[in-house]
Amino acid sequence: MGLTKTEIFTEEQNRLAIMLKALAHPARIAILQQIINANACICGDLVDELGLAQATISQHLKELKTAGLIQGTIEGVSVCYCIEPRAWKLLSSQLDEFFSLYKEPANCC
Amino acid sequence: MGLTKTEIFTEEQNRLAIMLKALAHPARIAILQQIINANACICGDLVDELGLAQATISQHLKELKTAGLIQGTIEGVSVCYCIEPRAWKLLSSQLDEFFSLYKEPANCC
DNA sequence: AATATCAATCGTAATATTGCGATATATATG
DNA sequence: CATATATATCGCAATATTACGATTGATATT
After folding, report:
1. CA A48 – CA B81 distance, rounded (Å)
2. Architecture of domain B10-95
3. Which end of chain A is more exposed for a tag (fewer CB within 10 A), N or C?
4. Would the CB atoms of B107 and A6 count as touching at under 8 Å?
């Protein structure tokens, strides 16, 4: 065990869970906020800004990139990271949809 | 290590990450969808509906309850679970705010 | 070519998560 | 009170996550 039973859930449920997992860490939230704020960031900026080791930041960036939420472009020695607009909008709207499923408390327990 | 460095992030970043973590599992997404769909659910219904053991569903319900996303009311032998409206709305608007930080691709990399 | 700079990857330790069987607890019902 | 029903909790095994030092790789700079 210790392994999520993906096969019993829908594609959508699994995809949403994966994206949310990518967001579900304060460092990654902070990284995204920094990237948005600065329009683009390189790894070193984030290392200075947050108080985490370079290896740790790099690993978080990789997770965000794997999820598709950010993209990285090589720019000389450094790599410029910014938001991936499509994935961002898609996730945003999927979450909107999910949260709007719930309408006001009817006659709950 | 293996421990998140909460102290270097803001209260908001940590709270949002905790709530997202509670959502970031297909079983918990499915549970919430079921609860919303049926207006309220008891643990047994969810065990039948999803294909997970009773102990597993109970544990997921506990996590959702700890996060404050659902509430449970004892109803005879069973416990009736439903959405906690305040937490739901709060998270929804916090996510709205977070996602709206990003405005269109300016002159990115 | 040698060196500096920046980021990715490897390896490792500590901790967390996932899932379930077994058991405990708590409330109905006969 | 004994039994059935429903849920929670315990304990465990398998796996995943988090963090970082050390190293590697790749591009500039001198």
Report:
1. 45
2. Orthogonal Bundle (1.10)
3. N
4. no
How far is residue A99's CA from residue A85's CA, in Å, rounded to a whole number? 21
Of B40, B95, B109, the CB nearest to A109: B40
E strand intervals along A1-109: 41-42, 70-75, 78-83
Instruction: Give B66-81 as a DSSP string.
Output: HHTSEEEEEETTEEEE
Q: Per CATH, which fold does A10-96 belong to? A: Arc Repressor Mutant, subunit A (1.10.10)
- Look at A26 and B40 and tell me if their CB atoms are within 8 Å: no
Distance from CA of A79 to the nearest CA of B (A): 9
Place of tokens 């609860």: B35
Percent of chain A with pLDDT over 70: 96
Provide CB contacts within 8 A for B22, sequence distance 6+: B28, B63, B64, B66, B67, B69
Q: What is the DSSP letter of B106?
A: -
Q: How far is the CA of A6 from the C1' of D15 (A)?
A: 14
pLDDT in tens, A57-97: 999 999 999 999 999 999 999 999 999 999 999 999 999 99
Task: Report pLDDT digits (tens) over B52-69.
Answer: 999 999 999 999 999 999
In this prediction, residue A109 has a pLDDT band, given cuts at 50, 70 and 90, of confident
